[in-house]
Design brief:
With about 375 residues, this protein is an alpha+beta fold. It is built from 11 helices and 11 strands. Strand 4 and strand 5 form a beta hairpin. It is globular.
């Protein structure tokens, strides 16, 4: 995996978690008290005469010191036996309590361990393959699912970028964009709305990409996809022609539009400026018109309101190495079972197609539980 193949699960690989020295919003720390491992001690109540539950387990002695006809034992012996039995019962009761506490602790630990796959009620899987190309210019990342505080306060962020193979340093641009978003995400103020966070992250990603390209067109660039899942809703932002899709009820629904020259050509044809035949025959139809690293972005798609997710939904982020090889129905049919298994099925199906010029492929799959 080259420099562009960033995958962040647990800890960022090859990227410092320290935020960039940027203006205020990215440097704001999360508000609210920092949770500690144990609660602060409360005010101790005044002692009362009521003994603890364990101390109440006892056996009353014989009311008179008469000899007890059990093996010739005297009353004092019966009293000692009562104390011994009481101690045994108290020990057994304590054992039951300890056992219950241990079971609760184990159950809590199991619930915490589920966070890495079921954060915010979802599973995440990914596929990443070089195809038949000499360089891997796709990059992707997923925010830290093992950080309960980040998941609870900010949600889950997934990012995919496809470096432009026809231009220089595509892999460096995609890696810079994705890495910047992952560094900035944990430190953005939680006073911001989710779509504001995504817009800010795209801006920072474009800044990072421009540092690689010099901010000049045709000197390198990358597409960029990002989704944020929080409280059962989905927000997204997109630049370029990579795709974010919702799969619901077996149907694949695109959420983003491609920023390509074909859109401009078709609009011109609709205005009568050229024929539709000419628009369809233009060799530059698939050329990108907006991408990170081009300087100021020409177009950016995003959702201002969160899309309510339903149990059984799938969210798919994919580069053109996937959707140029598999059609929508074929892709949707592969999304079942566990998220990682579904992502691996997509990769296997693309590779099995055996296209001689197979592009890099990346798919990030979110299964809503």
């Amino acid at each position: 995996m080259g420099v562009s193949s960033i995958r962040i699960l647990g800890e960022t690989q090859g990227i410092s978690p320290v935020p960039l020295s940027t203006p205020t919003p990215a440097q704001k720390q999360e508000t609210g008290a920092t949770p500690s491992d144990s609660p602060a001690p409360s005010q101790s109540p005044q002692p009362t005469q009521t003994p603890s539950p364990l101390a109440t387990v006892s056996i009353a002695p014989s009311p008179t010191p008469e000899t007890v006809a059990v093996g010739g034992l005297f009353g004092i012996g019966g009293f000692a036996l009562g104390i011994l039995i009481g101690a045994m019962l108290a020990s057994a009761a304590a054992g039951v309590i300890v056992s219950r506490i241990q079971k609760r602790a184990k159950a809590q630990k199991r619930n915490l361990l589920r966070i890495d796959t079921l954060a915010q009620g979802l599973e995440v899987g990914n596929a990443h393959h070089i195809g038949k190309r000499s360089n891997q210019e796709d990059s992707f990342a997923i925010s830290d699912l093992n950080n309960p505080r980040l998941v609870d306060n900010s949600g889950v962020l997934a990012v995919v970028a496809d470096g432009m193979g026809g231009l220089a340093d595509g892999e460096l641009v995609s890696a810079a964009a994705v890495g910047t978003m992952m560094r900035e995400f944990p430190v953005i103020s939680n006073d911001w709305m989710p779509h504001q966070k995504l817009l800010y992250l795209v801006q920072r990603a474009n800044d990072a990409a421009n540092e690689v390209t010099g901010g000049a067109r045709n000197h390198g660039g990358s597409t960029l996809l990002s989704v944020l899942v929080r409280d059962g809703k989905l927000w997204f932002a997109s630049v370029g022609d990579s795709r974010i899709c919702l799969v619901r009820g077996g149907s694949l629904i695109p959420l983003t539009r491609p920023h390509i020259y074909a859109t401009d050509l078709d609009k011109r044809a609709a205005r009568g400026e050229l024929s539709f035949e000419s628009a369809l025959a233009d060799g530059q139809r698939s050329a990108l018109t907006s991408y990170v690293g081009m300087g100021e972005l020409e177009a950016l798609d995003y959702s201002a309101r969160g899309l309510q997710l339903l149990s059984g939904d799938w969210v798919l982020l994919m580069t053109d190495g996937v959707f140029n090889t598999l059609d929508d129905d074929e892709t949707a049919a592969l999304l079942y079972g566990e998220a990682q298994s579904a992502a691996e099925r997509i990769e296997s199906r693309v590779i099995a197609r055996g296209l001689p010029q197979q592009d890099n492929l990346t798919a990030v799959v979110l299964r809503i539980l």
